[in-house]
Structures are given as structure tokens and as C-alpha cells.
Amino acid sequence: MAAILVELFRHNTWANLRLFDACAGLSDEHLGASAPGTYGRAGDTLVHLVAAQERYLALLTGTQPESPSREGDPFPGVPALRERVRRSSEALEAVAARVRPTRVLRGVRRGEPFAIPATTVLIQAINHATEHRAHVATVLSQRGVQPPVMDGWVYGEEAAGR
User: Fold this and answer.
1) Does residue 151 lie in a domain region?
2) Which pLDDT score is estimated for 59?
């Protein structure tokens, strides 16, 4: 079962990198665009995706990044975000490879104690990234930019050719 979970996170890494690579050459106008029903501006969505992945990783490992990504900070540029998403995506793959299905994360959030299965955080990490990749793809397509294909079929074809 762990191998399946790791493969899902490998797809997540692959899809994240495809999206960030596609955004690398976009203008400020494209990165500043938004569309109804999405998180917001494409650039803000990329920052949010990275910041959330870093938070999930911190929750799962107990280790904070040196300088975490934060929504609302000045846009650091796609190359810097791509490197952060690569690191956090690969680290999530590593966590997925070793997490015990029965592990429960405990802590305090907003003054309240919590206990949450580690698997719930892993599920959320994949779901969250998928949702926001789709938001950016929607914004780009509405601006006349063909977004990358990030589905499991193409990933499977590419993975089989490794």
C-alpha cells in the first residue's frame, strides 16, 4: 500500500513541476490574472500552493522551513517558487514512503488541542495541490494560454518510459 501512496505523491511532484515550468515564461499580466471560481490571481495561487505544501510537511515532520512561503508576501518569482515546490513535493514523497497508517499527529492550533491522522494530512496535500493546479490552468486557459496536461494518463505514459 505504501508504494501506491508514494506513486500518488510522485504524480503530485510531476504535475506541480509541469505547472511551474509552464508558468516560468508568463508575463506579470498572466500571473496577475484571475477567473471566477478560482482561488484568485494565478501568481497568488502558486504561492498558496507552495505555502500549504510547506505547512503540511511541517505538520508531518515537525520541522519548519528556514523561511516559509507566506501568502501576502511580495511575489518571489516562478523560479524561486518552483524550487520550493520541488523540495516540498519530494519531501512529501519521502514522508509517504515511511508514514505508518496508524500515526496520529497531535498539537495545538489556535489555542485548541488537535489529533489528526497523518493519512488525512497526506490526502489533503494531494487534493489541495490538484485543486489549485486546476485553478491556475483555468486562469491560463481563459487568458489564451494552453496549460500543461497534468493528468494521471500522461503521467503514467511518461513514468512507463523511465
Assistant:
1) no
2) 95
DSSP H helices, the chain, are 2-23, 28-31, 42-61, 78-98, 118-142, 152-160
Nearest 5°: CA angle at 92, between 39 and 141?
30
- Has residue 49 been placed in a domain? yes
**CATH number of the domain to which 118 belongs:** 1.20.120.450
Q: Is residue 124 a contact partner of residue 23, using CB atoms and an 8 Å limit?
A: no
Residue 122: CA count within 13 A, CB half-sphere: 28
Range of the domain at 84: 2-146
Q: How many domains does the chain have?
A: 1
Write down the pLDDT at residue 161. 84
Q: What is the pLDDT of residue 1?
A: 61
pTM: 0.94
1: its cell numbers: 500500500
Q: Is position 82 within any domain? A: yes
Residue 157 within a domain: no
Distance CA 110, CA 123 (A): 22
Question: What CA–CA distance (Å, rounded) separates 69 from 54?
Answer: 8
Burial of 111 (0-12, 13-18, 19+ CB in 10 A): exposed
Grid coordinates belonging to 136: 491556475
Residues with pLDDT less than 50, the chain: none
